């Protein structure tokens, strides 16, 4: 029971301590970027589990942030860290003052201190790094505060870990462990005495005895050799001791010097500037009289040196000017005069005389396709359209006006009626076609409106034509039908011809059809030409014959037999042919001649009869002849 | 129908007369009928009668004693001018035109009848020449006359030596010119040619 009471009291005391610690930490050393942690630890009425959870809530993210910061420092991103005053609470001020004293003990160079490991500070003082706030750019205030806090925290941990545990960070790998390094350094620092006192250990900053002659000058170098300006007052006594350090830190400070050169306003005592006489900077102001006190081997003044350099440069330039120019600056160069493939390495400018082939990108193809599509939609193609020659033959128009030679079937009234109706229809059609929008109801008023509109439009157009000086294309003139007969012209024009002219009104091509092809005389014609002509003639004959047959047939149908003239003519024609051949013998008709005497009459009669008898006898003889040749046996030999 | 009137001087414009202004209020027209048209008149009397009475609202009778057709207005006639129309109609029929052709006179305002003689055109024609001239006018089977009629949209009556033409003013002129040319001796082909040209032009002018 007593044990339990003791443990309970211990518990409450422990809780109170943790709460105080937590609160103080949160108040004074808040990490940047830490969110989610409670402002104070609530212990009253909370379970130990819950308290642990609250602590975890604070610790987990802060671990990460702190590890990040450490990693940053270790990788040395900000190569220089400067130390400045940190406005912390009163419990830290004592440590701060200690830090200041420490600072003064150190070298003046330490105002731009190089990288110092955090473990160093642990040895001297927890806040040995709380140095003066200089004006240089370095860790930010907060970051440093964070760092400070970290260092505050770490001592607790280090003490725990120095027993045996090594701190684990993100940077660790096989070969390198931050924790081990820190441990080692701690050990060394612990063993190492105040710098100048120990003689057994190797003083890294001591003079190194070497056989090299080169380093002699470097070994004997003094502050004045490297740094411009007077030695800061506070450090002059320590100059002898620290002059060796200059060599080591010179390299690192070269870069710093370049940047710090800008801040010339600072008092010279604080600032240490590099003496750059040995290097190639020539724009120094010679206001420093300290340069005159330099004791260099050779004994040349800066002016002399500069002159020498100038002369060297001049000599160089002269040589360049005198020497033969490189091939790039010689006018025309052949391949032999320049090295192999030298043109490839040169950047050449020349004019392109040819048009470059167009670069085909997606955009160009897109635009082309757009154009094609639009053309197809508009049906605006570039096709060549066939031109048709218009026919201007007046004979064509003659055929249109047909002369009706029959009595008209319609009476006059009907004709006029038809005409009137036609006119009305055309007017209606015109009215309908002229309307742009299809208005379903065609009222009389609308027609009137349209008529009025048309009139007005006509006037407007007339005015426009007048304005543009009638430069419009008029309608093509239709050929006027003019009946011309091939009579001497003057006869047509005047009733009483005063003079007579032979000129014909018709042109030769209007009288006769134009002959196509080359005219050939009879001797020039080849066989093919002659045959062609014959064929033409025959075909024309055939056509004519067919026509005649057709008409005669039609006529025969109407008046069959010998009723029509064609039949009569045909018969007569046949008769004449027959008479020519001899099949028919015409009886000469002498009866018209009146027989004056009886002897003449009887003579005629006798002739007629004898002629008929002869004819009969001849016929009989023929048959007898035919009959005689009846049996073939009579011909037998 | 178009009637081209050339007005060199401004004509005095008289408004149409109203019936109230007349003395009796009754207009009478008398048209004498020659003997050779007597029987055609008898045959076509009804055809003459109906349009005059029904459409024009006039009174018509044939005076047998005078051999005259008489036309008279009555109370029903709406327009006094109808009398003149009817008179023209009857006169055209008497001249020799057919009823249907003469009917056009009633229906259309601008139709006229022009009459002239051959001796007006060429007085020196006598005997056979005159007959030949008449034959030329008629053509074979009346072809020439019909051609002129068809092309000029007129009706022509050849009454031996008198020629009557019925149609609109311009068409009458065209037909008259053609006939005169024929009388004067032009061959019909030539006349046809001229007719065609003129007719096409006149149709375009419509």
TrEMBL record, chain A:
Compartments it resides in: Nucleus, Nucleolus
Region named Disordered: 88-169, 224-307, 423-448, 520-566, 614-637
Keyword tags: Nucleus, Ribonucleoprotein, Ribosome biogenesis, rRNA processing
GO cellular component: a single term: Mpp10 complex
GO BP annotations, alphabetical order: rRNA processing
PANTHER family found in the cross-reference section: U3 SMALL NUCLEOLAR RIBONUCLEOPROTEIN PROTEIN MPP10
Protein's job: Involved in nucleolar processing of pre-18S ribosomal RNA.
Assigned protein family: Belongs to the MPP10 family.
Protein name as it appears in the record: U3 small nucleolar ribonucleoprotein protein MPP10
From TrEMBL, chain B:
Compartmental location: Nucleus, Nucleolus
Residue span, K Homology domain: 110-184
Sorted UniProt keywords: Nucleus, RNA-binding
InterPro entries, per the entry: KH-I_PNO1_first (IPR055212), KH_dom (IPR004087), KH_dom_type_1_sf (IPR036612), KH_PNO1_2nd (IPR055211)
Gene Ontology annotations for the cellular component aspect, listed alphabetically: nucleolus; nucleus
GO molecular function: RNA binding
Family: Belongs to the PNO1 family.
Protein name: K Homology domain-containing protein
Organism of origin: Daphnia pulex
